[in-house]
Each structure stands twice: as structure tokens, then as C-alpha cells.
Amino acid sequence: MNISGMFDVGVTPQEPSFEGQNGVRVGRMAIQKRFHGALEATSRGEMLSAMTVIDGSAGYVAIEQVQGTIAGKTGSFVLQHYGVMDRGQDRLVLEVIPDSGTGELRGLTGTMRIEIEDGKHFYHFDYDGI
Question: Is residue 123 classed as helix, strand or coil in its secondary structure?
């Protein structure tokens, strides 16, 4: 199945547990989202990032637990994020952690793609298993 929609995101800076060295900037953020559309849900998570001294080169990882409904089925699941920017060329993978689904979302598998257009956030979620 493939669903798409919009989401709102908020980030709250947190204190990282270490400082970057040699020009690397390390960041830590609490994230909160509200998904709209076929995925009606809220999520909370945490993100770690590192930005290099080269413009457009950075990376981030995040864990985000999503609670809500997909096509009328209720439960939760966890998304793992892996993002890399190589001098402006980005690669982003969001994947459902195996066996993280609960309730009617037990068995959920899938990947999510994110797009940002004119400051608005959109998701495209390819999923299976429910």
C-alpha cells in the first residue's frame, strides 16, 4: 500500500552529550510531528546530527515513535531515520523498525519518503503487513 499526506513538525534543541572537534558541529533535537491524511498520528522522537566544515555535507540519525491510525487501523510503530548530505546531494531513508508495530499495526513493515515544498512537509509511506 502507498499513502501520502502532509505533516507538521516541531523541533526543540537539546544539549548534546559531547562537542564536535575540528570544526564539526554536533546537534541533538527533540522532534514532534502531527501527520494528516491516511496516516492520522502524532509522533515524538530524538535526532542527532553532525555538520562538517564543507557546506552541504552533514548527516543525521533519528528514532521516532508514531502513534495513531493508518487506513482506520490503530496502534503505534517506530521509524528509524538515516540521512546523509554529500555537498548538497542528499540521501534519506526512513524505515519501520521490524516488530515495532503494536495493536492493529502489529506486523507493519515499510519505508517513508519525505518531501519539503514551499516550507510544507509531505510524507509518502509504502507499507505492508497489516
Answer: strand
Q: Measured between alpha carbons, how far is 29 from 13 in angstroms, rounded to an integer?
A: 4
Q: Is the pLDDT of residue 88 over 90?
A: no
Residues 100 and 76: their CA atoms lie apart, in Å, by: 8
The DSSP 8-state label assigned to residue 93 in this structure reads E
Q: Answer whether residue 11 is part of any domain.
A: yes
Range of the domain at 40: 2-61+71-104
pLDDT of 94 above 90: yes
- The C-alpha cell at 15 is 544539549
Checking if the pLDDT of 2 tops 90, the result is: yes
Q: Which residue has the cell 555537498?
A: 87
Residue closest to 53 by CA, chosen among 20, 91, 24:
24
Q: Is 85 inside a domain boundary?
A: yes
pLDDT tens column, 23-51: 999 999 999 999 999 999 999 999 999 99
Overall number of domains in the chain: 1
Residues forming a β-bridge with 126: 2, 111
